[in-house]
Amino acid sequence: MTTAAPQAPTRRRRWLPVVAVALVVGFVLVMGRIGWHLTRDGVVLHLLGGYVLRGGFDVVLTPRVLLPVVVGLAGVLAGPALAARAPWRVLLPGSALAAAAWAVALALSSGWHRLPEPLSVVYEYPNDVPRVEGIGAFLSGFVASVPADAADPWTTHVAGHPPGALLAFVLLDRLGLGGLGWAAAMCVAGGALAVPAVLVAVRAVAGEEPARASAPFLVLAPMALWVATSADALFAGVAAWGVALLATAAARAPGVADVRALAGGLLLGLALFLSFGLTALGLVALTVVLVHRGRLGWGGVVRVLGVAALGVALVVAAFAVGGYWWVEGFTAAGERVRSGPSYANRPLEFFVFANLAAAALAVGPAAVAGLASLRRARLALLPLAALVGILVSDLTGLVRGETERIWLPFYVWLLVATAFLPPRQRRGWLAAGVVLAIGIEVVVRTEW
Predict the structure, then answer these.
(1) Whether 7 contacts 381, CB under 8 Å
(2) What is the C-alpha to C-alpha distance for residues 335 and 345, in angstroms, rounded to an integer?
């Protein structure tokens, strides 16, 4: 396989992105229609009035919408040129700042309250922060409070995740940064920092040019709607940097590579204690190493993965010593999820497809067009690995709705496919994603 995407697709292949997006638009509309019929017939989808995305339809169009319009327009007009010409050391922090600005601009179009508000509900992590007194007692007693019929059960999101998710908010509070404002800032920062992580990984896998090509799409994707504000954005950032460090380790000589592989393993291990669903991201982590097999040889591949596995094991051991065993927690969380009405009432035969429709809206038309433009290049393995992870997560049946936020850690890797878009089409697809994001923000009252 080649190291980068070819830049001269045939005329017929130039039409594939358009056809693919048209088909996906039709699929989303069909799923929305089915959702509407199910709701009309009395099925409770637990989507707050929505049929694919979680959130009811309620148009809020005020002068504040000019903020994301201006930011989005600036990104479309100047983003590709800046991404292509900026020094690499400037592009990485610049992409994170731009991604944060886009996410915040979208949220603020509905008012200042929209940034902290999603974390204020009783189901979210900050609700249970006051319950945690000592870390040792918290970890050892965590599983006992997972069942819904426990004496003092954790709130919904806490119970459905490993303890690391709540622990992140607890540690923020212990640092003196308590309150929903700081919690929202941590989530936004996590989601924004995922962007330079992906760029670093793409550069390690296929070179700088495709990384620069995908940068504007990573910044301006509609997924920014859920970066501000959901905890899954934080999960995405931690996991993305774990993969990025692993990718750079595989691209370098032994020695420095071992340090990076260990650091990547530590972050990926931490990610496992933020969300059980991130286990499906393991294929992406394997991919960024396996693509270098020709240079490393199998011995080198095993060395990088072995050092990374040591990092993961250290995190697992640390939580185990604290009293929390991941497998036991996973079993308890699965039982808690299955016992709730928002799982039992949601028909699997609908959500197994509606989940993908929500994902299509979150990644936007550019990612869909990019997937249709994939060619034989090792970079193509990254979005394909992420897509397989999404499908695995979907087919487990545990995820029923809200995938616009739940799959954020996967979306950032799907967007790598935009590097394969025909150069003349890129600005158009970038603009389409901006329009979609603003449209959703104006029309749908999303929960996050």
Answers:
(1) no
(2) 15
Question: What mean pLDDT do residues 194-200 have?
Answer: 98
What is the per-residue pLDDT for 252? 83
Residue 60 lies in a domain: yes
- Please state at what angle helix 66-85 crosses helix 88-108, rounded to 10 degrees: 170
| Residue 10, pLDDT score | 58
Q: Which helix (H) or strand (E) holds 445?
A: strand 444-446
> Under 8 Å CB-to-CB from 266, ≥6 apart: which residues?
242, 311, 312, 314, 315
Cβ pair 292, 250 in contact under 8 A: yes
Distance (Å, whole) CA 191 – CA 96 = 9
54 vs 57: CA distance, rounded Å: 10
On whether residue 6 sits in a domain, the answer given is: no
The closest of 22, 191, 177, 172 to 98, measured between CA atoms, is: 191
Q: Does 4 score more than 50 pLDDT? A: no
Q: What is the DSSP string of 297-348?
A: HHHHHHHHHHHHHHHHHHHHHHHHHHT--HHHHHHHHHHHHHHSHHHHTS-H
Tally of domains in the chain: 1
Q: Is 44 left (phi over 0), alpha (psi -120 to 50) or beta?
A: beta
Residue pLDDT, tens place only, 359-406: 999 999 999 999 999 999 999 999 999 999 999 999 999 899 999 999
Quote the Cα angle for 385-430-29, to 5°: 75
Give the pLDDT score at 110: 84
Q: What predicted TM-score, i.e. pTM, was given to this entire model?
A: 0.94
In a domain, 1, yes or no: no
Q: Which of 192, 234, 169 is nearest to 104 (CA)?
A: 192
Q: 68: closest CA among 104, 105, 98, 97?
A: 105
Tell me if 334 is assigned to some domain: yes
Cis peptide before 229 (omega within 30 of 0): yes
Which domain range does residue 353 map to?
A: 12-446
Q: Under a CB-based contact definition with an 8 Å cutoff, are residues 223 and 363 in contact?
A: yes
